[in-house]
Every structure is written in structure tokens, then in C-alpha cells.
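Hey,

The postdoc asked me to send both predictions to you directly instead of through the lab channel. I've kept everything plain text so nothing gets mangled by the mail client. Protein one:
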Amino acid sequence: MTLIRSGGLPLQAWEPLSGGVPDWDVLEKSEQLASERLLRAFDEALTNISEIPLRTIVYNARKAFFQRRKLPSPSVEASIQASANLAPLLDCIAVLKQARLEKQRAESIFEQNLEANYKVLQGLALDEAFHRALLFTSHDLLASLPSFAGKAYPFFDKKDRRTALSALQYLTRMVFKT
């Protein structure tokens, strides 16, 4: 005899919450590697430069980056670009800018997905089947669902975020547990 086990809700109930988010650890690691490469490129550029005004500009740019992770200003980049032997330094600056841009994109994607997921959970908070399931498990969560469902995402407080987390945990349990 074979038993087939299934969750209380179909898997389609989980699909709206499974939006793709870039891997934050990979983005952090790529930014860190780009920063390390840029520091090495600054050091190599300083050993190769003999012109005093350009060397001072590059040294100050390296110091600002090392101390505050501040990228060179456009005027400094223009000065560096004027020298032909500093092309690797410019390439490293471009790579770090791209890594930071990717990180900003990931943050905006995460924020959009978070808002969309909260809206899905607010819709779940109005679902009658979900209410009936909570009658057996959590009367406190059931009581807090109407205020959670009626509030807009930017105005969530700690209690609303906890309610959303609890609703997500119950939804997960309803979909994946038998």
C-alpha cells in the first residue's frame, strides 16, 4: 500500500512569494574583490608614476578610497585618464562602480519583492480558509489579521511585520507540511 501525502494547501499558494532575488553574498563578495583589486591598482599606479602633480592626485584618491571607500571624483578620473599608463586603474574603478550598481539594483529588487510579498500576505489575511485554519492554532494571530490587512506597506510597524512573519510561517506550514 502506498500513501501519498500532501499539504493542506496546493503549491500554487506559495508561487506568488517565490520571486527571484539576487544572491546578496555573491554581490558582497564581488564588491569586496573589486575593492581589493582597486587598492592594488592604486599601489601599482603609485609605483609607476614619476610626475609629481599626477602622483599627488592618485595618492589622495587612494587615501580617500582606503579610508572612506570613496571613489575618485570625475575630475580626478579625468586627470588619471590623461595618463596612458594608468588604464588598469581606470578599469578597476569601472569594475567597482559596476559592482556597486549591481548591489543597488539588488536592493531595489529586494524592496519591490518585499512590498509584493507583503501584499500577498495581506491578501492571505483576508482569506476565509486561512481564518478557519487559524481557529485551531492561533487566536492571537487571527485577531491581528484585520489591522494588518488594512494597513499600507510603508506604514508597517513592528507588530505588523511580526504578524506578516507569523502569517508566512503558517502559510508555509499549510503548503508544505501534511
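Protein two:
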Amino acid sequence: MKTGFYSLIVLLFSFIQPVTAQISFTNGKHSLEISGGISAYYNHRLIKPDATNQNMNKNRFGLRDAQLQIEGRYGQMWEYELQVDFADFASSSVGEADPENPGLMDAYVLFKGLKFVDIQFGYGKTPYSRSSLVPFIYSPYWQRAEIVRGNVFSRRDVGITLSKSFWKQRIGVYAGAYNGTGEISLRGDNDASGALEYIGRVEFAFPQRMRYRDIDERHVHIPLFAIGLNGRFTERKLPAGATFPAYSTGEYGIKLIDGRRFVYGLDAVFMYKGFSGSFEIHQLRGEPRNPGSLLFQGYSEAETKGYFLAGGYVAQLNYFSRFLQSIFSVRYEQLDLNDLVNGRSERFSCAYAFQLKRFNSMLKFQYTKIIKEESIDPLRWTDQFRIGWQYLFK
């Protein structure tokens, strides 16, 4: 009975399963692969009955991705990648780029000719936070948790990354130096301080290597675990009268500060027989140089001791059903934008994804509920629904 029902489901959807394949070229030692994808959705929000702003402009269809990805290799020593999202190029300028999904996603060269370290130079994801490093296409969600979306710390930047793996890739070590202005680095100049941001990550997986995924599609028969430690630091001293580039401080004004800024975090993930779960926690410590900084919320230096804290965590549980070709997921997150202000935001999200052809063709639904909100970030909505389809050719 079960086998017959499964065959019927496969038959019903087989007519809309696209044939997917990446385009490959080879010329001697040089190989080139071209792939890409499109994802679109419909978004709907429930507005607070007493909200002063009843604007419902977020109830709309949206094109999230129209991506083209080029990956190349020359021999065993050189790799490069160029990934562009035309949907974001069309909808915003570089200065207004969505840090979660900017127009230019990757543009770097990787040199693997040294035995003791690999060197990556250019623009791409910074080695911080597993949730940030998991590609969007492997997630059942349409949006990442708020703390890792790119407004608390940058997800991409221009710079250099050194990396090395050990013990059959179970241990990975990453360290790099970057402009520190994140996606705004694409505009060219650094901020007036000319300072850099330094980022490091160490991760350990057991009993074997674990890629940046949060869904156990393979139904592994041996429990897999991975843990990562992350840190990033920058100290910026703006000259008198200078300001940071537009949009570089993020939606909450804490992505860059005139002073010292530390961010550190821990992430962990497990997978076993279709079940998977992940947990991340991050904290930001800001030490503005100006005692009268707005980030001190009007408190005196004696009260603040010269610093403020921000941060939060996110926990997620998932199950992948081979029989139903479906992913079920729930997520809970907290975010405190400034410990000098009482309160913190809390959100609950759940997601369902139906795989027409694995991750290459997938229907995705996400629901988000605002449990609590901070006075720093008042919202006019309480619930959000998002449903759509991602299609990849790769």
C-alpha cells in the first residue's frame, strides 16, 4: 500500500520535474562550470490593528533570485568563482544592497598551491557563523534568522582569507582581514578611519566531515556533529567631522561603530536519520569612543562603563521525509539590540518545503510570528507568510 501510494505521488509530480544540469567546459587543465537559479515568492503580512502605519506594501510577489554562477579550476592549484544575482541588481543600487542577498554574491580567486595554507582573495562570504555560511538553496526558509541576516555583522566583504583543514577535513581553521564595511565595500573606498576587520573561525566535525548544510537529506545512519567557534574584531577611529558611508552601519546602527567592536559566537549542528538541529549564539560588545554616542542611550559613562552589549541566539529543528519528499522545520530566535534598553525581540518561524527534484526544484513555505519586539525596533506587523518556488540549473 505504501509503495503504491508513493508511486502515485511520484507520477503526479513527474510532469513538472524539470531536467536540471550545469553547463561544463574543459580545455586541458582548465575547467569551467556555469549554473544558476531563479526563486520567486508571494509575501503577506498581518498588520497590528492599532498600528499608526497601516501600509501594506509588503503584501506582494517578489523575485528573490535570478542568479548566474561561474566556477572555474585550473589544475590543482587555482579555483575561482563569480556569482551574480540580477534580481538584486535590478531592484537596488550597490549602496542599498540587501546584506542577506546582495547583487554581487561572490567574486574571488583561491590559490591552493601551498601545502600549509589555502589563500582566497576577493569578495565573498566571511568565515563567521554556520547559519550565514549555509547556502540559501539548501534551506526550507525564505529568510535567515534576524541575527545572521547581515544587519548585526556583515556576511560578505572584500579581503583575504587563509584556511586549512586537518584530519580528513574534520577540522577547519579560517582567518582573514577585510575592509570591515561589508557589502558596502563594493562602492570602492573604505571609511575614513582606514581600519580593517579581522575574522577567525575554528570548526570541528565528528565522525566525518560535515558540509555547510542544515538538512539531513541523506538520512545518515551514524550521528554527525559539528561545532564552530567564531570571532571578529575591528577598531575604527573616524577623523573629526567624518561619518561612515551610507548604509554601512546596518538597519540597527551597530554594524559599524566609531570605536572598538568585538563579535564572538558559537554554533553547533547534528544530523541523524533525517533529523537535524542547529544552535547558534552571538554577542557583540561595542566600545564607542565618544561618551555621548547615541549607542549609550543617554546613560553616563559611569553607568555604561564605556561599552554596550548586543546579541542573541537561534535554535532550529528539522526533519526530512524521503517518503513525502518534504522538509519540516521549526525555529526560535531572540535578539537584544542593546542591553542598556530593557526588552528583547523574540520570533518563532516554521517552514515546509516540498522537493519536486531535490533542492533543484522545491516549493517553500515559511511562517513567522513576532512574539516580542523591542522599543528600539518597533514593527507594524505581527505575522508573515511567504510561499514560493526555487528552481536551479546545476
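Summary for protein two, as requested: The CA atoms of residues 123 and 158 lie 4 Å apart.

Thanks,
C.
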